[in-house]
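Check out a protein:
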Amino acid sequence: MSKKQQDIAYFLSFCTEQYKNEKHMSGRDAMNMLEKYGVLDYLAEHYEMLHTQGRQWLMEDIDEFIALRKKEVS
């Protein structure tokens, strides 16, 4: 695994853990939610920009991303 791939993996882990705590969910439920709406792919794809943002901004961005995805499937 390259250094960048490792950094992205740590970032995804950080975001998942923070989301879980923010939403008072189990780790499994948080992972299911993030995978269901493609959040992990989004975070990995835009790692360069997103990893510089603060925790609260990331949580709001994830909420907005999920809300947009929910509208797309409705």
The chain has a mean pLDDT of 96. The CA atoms of residues 37 and 45 lie 14 Å apart. The radius of gyration is 12 Å. The helical segments are 3-23, 27-36, 39-45, 47-50, 55-73.
